[in-house]
Structures are given as C-alpha cells and as structure tokens.
Design brief:
Length: about 280
Amino acid sequence: MEQQPRKRRGALIFSLVFLAVAGAIAATVLLANDRRNLNVLLRELGVETRTMVIPKPGTMEAFKGKRLQGVAVLLPENTFAPPVKTRESAFMRSMQKSGEALCQLFRKEGFDMTPWAASSLSQQVFECSNETTLPNAADARNPSTFFLIVKGTADGHLLSTRAKLIFSEADQRPPLAAGAARMLALFGTYANWLDLAEEAPKVASLTTFSLSNFGISVKFSREFSGEGRYNLIIAPSSPLQPAQQRTRDFFTRKNYWPLLPEHGGPPIKAAEETPEG
C-alpha cells in the first residue's frame, strides 16, 4: 500500500521538473531577440502588441546631427557616354602625311606635277598640281582635261588631294578616268589605306560614290553644271561624328579620361564660388 503513494509522488515530481525545464526553454525562445518571437506568437493569436508611448512635455532633448560638408567629385564626360559599336570604335586616321612626298610619288609615276610651293592665293597653303589636256578635233576650244592638285600646310602636312575630269569627247573618257583611278590607287598605297585603293575601279568606270572611313572622306561625284564633269576629292571627314571624335581623343588625356594630378595630370582648380541670392 505504501508503494502507490511513493509512485504518485515520484510521477508528480518528474512532471513538475519536466514542466519547469520546458517552461524555461519556451521562455528563452520567446524572449530572445528583444521578445521578437513572443510578439510574433501574440500577433498570430490576435493580441495587439504595439503600445504608444507619449512622452511627457519637456522630457525629449533636441538632437542635432553633424552636418557633413559636400564633396565635389569631378567625372569626365565620357563616364556616361554610350558604348561605341562597329567600325566607329576603331582609331581614327590622321592626315599627318607629307604633301611634298605625295607630289614626288605622283611625279615618279608619270604625273607631271609642278614643284611644291606656296599657293598664289595664300602663303599658308602649299601645293603642287598637274593638268593634262586632250585636244578635241571637232571643237578646238573645248578640249578634255584632267587636273590634279595636292594641298598641304607650310610645314608639309597634307591637307587634301583633288582630281577634276572634264570630257568633251566620249572616246577620251577611258584614258582620263583611268588616270584618276590610278591616282586614287597610288594615294591609298602611299598612305597605307588600301581600302581607298579598292575604290579605284569605280573611278575608272565613272561610278560615283562617297565614303567616310575612320576619319577620312573620299567622294567621287558628277557636277551638275554640265555633262562629262567629275570631281574626286580626298580629305579629312568634316565634321567628325561624336564617336569618331571620341576615338580621336583617346590618347589626349586632357579630353578623354583625364589623369589625376598625382598621376601627372593637370592640377584641379577649385570651383568658383557664386554670390548668394
């Protein structure tokens, strides 16, 4: 008879210990993270956990944050430039070729060029030229002509090359057109711009065209003033497209991704203060 009360007391003690341990564990979980789990449980049960605390007048202190001074960051304009695609992203060609050397090449290849000298119109422009005339048996005052002129600066840099064709007889077109085509091919070889030389057959067949490749423009066109008049002009592209100007400025650091002063760039000038108001 005494064993039954002992068993009951033992079961009661075990239950109390179990409930104490389970309660401690539950309290630890619910009260962790600033009672976050307890608040979640209460909200699930529909119990409002938010309380509004109204401070008493005069108990809150004014708080002033430390205002930071503005820092000016200079960004090059190319930071926000759109990406350049296709052949516009290639480096631009430069017309920094010798006009006098080109005249000598034409002279060597059979064009009777005049000496490289200052132009009669401007002492700042030098030039050499050639004019070939084919007589017109039917009209002596109206011959066919081929005119070639190379222009450059006083220090010898090439500016432009132009050929002008005037046909007065149909049978004189092939030889003069062939001469203009050979001029274009020689120019392409001289400048190592072989894609220009590839356009020579179009000139020989009097097929007009216009192209602008990597900063250089070549145009073969027919004049509107009369039949049988053509112009072939080789010159820098003007004006350059924004993408072309961007690639031309690539190695000019003052225009493209300027260097910081500590890396050899120019000193940064402080922005001028504007008067208030």
